[in-house]
Amino acid sequence: MTSSDFGRNPDNYCYRHPDRQSFVLCQRCLRTVCPECQTQMPVGVVCPECQQEQQKAAKVARMPHRRAIVRRRLDGRPMATYTLVAVTSLFYLVSLIPVVGPIVESALAFNSAFVLPGPTFQPWRLLTVTLVHASIWHVALNMLALWALGRSLEPLLGGGRFLALYGLSALGGSVLVALLAPGTWVVGASGAVWGLLGAMFVIGRHLGANVTAIAVLLGLNLVITFLPGSNISWQAHIGGGLVGALVGFVFARTRARRQRHTQLWLLIAVAVGLCALLVIPVIIYT
């Protein structure tokens, strides 16, 4: 992105002060806000309008337990990230239990055979593959990356968008495995994590931020993926990264509140398009 492109993009200026450039987005509505319009939250900032909405919501919650729920929702903590890390870690611990573990792994791991029509049709494996890992190092590295990336991305996008990004990236990784590596067993959340990296790179570029570190990280991971004997599914990594970058582009181009419906339909279109690609292995391998 050139400096002239950045200057012409109205999204890079405060929505209340169009003459002031800023790199900071409101964590709720994703509009650009200058320092004067920012209200600092525990994680990220909110604009004046979203702050008023939060205050109104807090007043409505009169019962003690309802106040606690509102506080948890408004404190800006990346709860979706923490939940994904906790659930995935729990499933790994369950997989270590004798007898039970192998059953859980065999029920959640992905193989293209499970998206072919027939008695073994189990499409949920396209996503549940993120819950199964091959070793302690495998799950530890993936969860560390998820925790690090989620703490930056989720406050920026919001929990719902973050989960959509994670799920679509995981789906993209599984779809490319089905297309290019039929019959291969894969496990892990690497495709979804690569999607987070791809989205962060695209969103950072759109905001005019320095994304050199992300580009280097992507490059290093790409080299490791293709190392001989790495036993890594490069199809899942590349598929997740490409879909994550696409979803990040959708988020970057539909930041305005009036574009929320457009954003939702574009995300649905991405999901439908990925599912439609699964027709290809059905035609080829049946």
Share in helix: 55-70%
CATH class of the largest domain: Mainly Alpha
Number of domains: 2
The low-confidence parts are 66-74
Strand content: under 5%
Oligomer: single chain
- Summarize the helix and strand pattern as letters: HEEHHHHHHHHHHHH
Mean pLDDT: 84
Secondary-structure-based class equals: mainly alpha
How is the largest sheet built, in terms of strand order?
1-2
Gross morphology is elongated
Query: So how many helices?
Result: 13
Work out the number of β strands. Answer: 2
**CATH H-level superfamily title of the largest domain:** Rhomboid-like
CATH topology of the largest domain: Rhomboid-like fold
SSE map:
Blueprint: H1 3-8, E1 39-40, E2 45-46, H2 48-60, H3 64-74, H4 79-95, H5 100-108, H6 125-128, H7 136-157, H8 159-180, H9 190-207, H10 212-225, H11 234-253, H12 260-277, H13 279-285
Antiparallel strand pairs: 1-2
Helix pairs in contact: 4-5, 4-7, 7-8, 7-9, 8-9, 8-11, 8-12, 9-11, 11-12
Brief digest:
The chain has two domains: 3-74, no CATH class; 79-285, Up-down Bundle (Rhomboid-like fold), CATH 1.20.1540.
Key terms:
single chain; 286 residues; Rhomboid-like fold; two-stranded antiparallel sheet; 2 strands; 63% helix; elongated
Q: Could you please describe the fold and organization of this structure?
A:
It is built from 13 helices and 2 strands, in the order αββαααααααααααα. Helices cover 63% and strands 1% of the residues. By secondary structure, the chain is mainly alpha-helical. The chain folds into 2 domains: 3-74, no CATH class; 79-285, Rhomboid-like (Rhomboid-like fold, Up-down Bundle), CATH 1.20.1540.10. α7 packs across α8 (159-180) and α11 (234-253) runs antiparallel to α12. The chain has a two-stranded antiparallel ribbon with strand order 1-2. β1 (39-40) and β2 (45-46) form a beta hairpin.
